[in-house]
Amino acid sequence: MTAEWTLDPDRYFDPNPAQRAAARDLYAQIAALPIISPHGHVDVRLFSEPEATFGTPVELFILPDHYLLRMLYSQGVPLEALGIPCVDGRPVEQDHRAIWQCFAEHIHLFRATPSGGWLDHALHDIFDIRQKLNTDTAQVIYDDLAEKLVAPDFRPRALFERLNIEVLCTTDAATDDLRHHQAIRVSDWCGRILPTFRPDAVLNLDTPGWRTHIDMLSAVSGIEVRDYGSFRAALVQRREAFKALGAKSTDHAALTAYTGQLTATEVESIFQRALKGEATAEDAVRFTGHMLIEMARMSLDDGLVMQFHVGSYRNHNPVLFAAFGWDKGADIPVRAEFTHNLRPLLAELGNNSRLTLIVFTLDESAYARELAPLAGHYPALKLGPPWWFHDSPNGMRRYFDQVMETAGLYNTVGFNDDTRAFPSIPARHDVWRRCACNWVAGLLVCGRIDEESAQAMVYDLACGLAKRAYRITE
């Protein structure tokens, strides 16, 4: 008889007995705290209808998760075999049992990866699966999951409550009409699902179909965008609409951290060239840099926290992008520079403590060299948690080592999961809490902090920092 599959209760803790024991005790104090998820990409439509379900196991675990897709693709698994829709509409695998079997046959690829840990947590702790997923168990586990996913206790709203999620923030385009958030707001359900303002498609002039996005902005805001002034007014209107539905933050992504102020004449000239389809690559860089400063100014006006994600070369694989489109695992980190690039924004607004600018980077080399010193000085600047490729036990350890002594714990913002796959939310927060407890335990056993400080620090790392940074009240 096969032994029951279990997870090590001390996973991610240091093997040193004293540190492990301290980490275990600290973790016990915070493990059951509510989850604060202030930034992510879960589809809000899952929660806008009371009877909505997550669909099949494939729709829940595989299709939305680019972490899984990139690993499978790297080992020669065609995305067509995983049921990923093609841009040109050619046939792909539609049998979700076959897709799940294919996934299970390649599950060994995720050994010792963050994705593997998240999947184990979700299957074991959320869905009470007690067999390891593999070639032989794939169909039995599929049947078990499929049966549970149609049960009332596993519908999105019910699972949201059972997982003790206090707040979940989605990421929504500036042109989104927010109808699904409105539906939640007027329903009798009390779950807090809040929108996040993401204007990249209209701020970045090199966005494919930028002119179409501008037309959409005109339609949803009720302001005809014909020049820079009306463009700015439309953005202000959308921010107000987001905030009325509970939004706490904005989100911005760029390849580099460049910011720079344009004159009124310069910005109008660039915007008019863009409307005519004549903007250059240099125009796009300068306009985005200008608009990041404008977004910070708007945050001072409306109080929305500003998030800035830097350093992802999007859609690096042109063949994959042409066949399948965005978010299929082909985004690659690049080096980033912050000291010079952020100076125009920080020189004007960084000394104002009413602004909260949270910076994320995929370039770990910038942490100790630039970001920790910057965050340890400017009142407006805070450091986001390890992001994307670094959202891992080793990434978290490096983050604690490189950031905390210079920036200080209270110039960081705790954790956000930045996830598209809903079941990985509790898994990713659990990894963070375990790694945070292990780090604090190391400080405790070597005498750098006392027990009272250790308890306060792990609470803040689990919940307190995120609540304060994103201005989330009880």
Structure description:
Helix 17 links the parallel strand 10 (357-361) and strand 11. This protein starts with 16 loop residues before the first helix and ends in a 5-residue tail after the last helix. The chain has 474 residues and is α/β, with parallel strands linked by helices. Strands 6-7-10-11 form a 4-stranded parallel beta sheet, with helices on one face. The mean pLDDT is 97. It contains 20 helices and 11 strands. Helix 11 (210-221) crosses helix 12 (228-244). The chain has a domain at 53-154: Orthogonal Bundle (uronate isomerase, domain 2, chain A). It is globular, with a radius of gyration of 23 Å.
Provide mean pLDDT, rounded: 97
Helical content class: 40-55%
Which strand order does the major sheet show? 6-7-10-11
User: What is the end-to-end distance?
Assistant: 49 Å
CATH topology description of one domain: uronate isomerase, domain 2, chain A
- Count of beta strands: 11
Biggest pleated sheet: 4 strands, parallel
Radius of gyration: 23 Å
Percent strand: 5-15%
Structural class: alpha/beta
Name given to the CATH architecture of one domain: Orthogonal Bundle
Number of helix segments? Answer: 20
Q: CATH homologous superfamily of one domain - what is it?
A: uronate isomerase, domain 2, chain A
Q: Could you name the CATH class of one domain?
A: Mainly Alpha
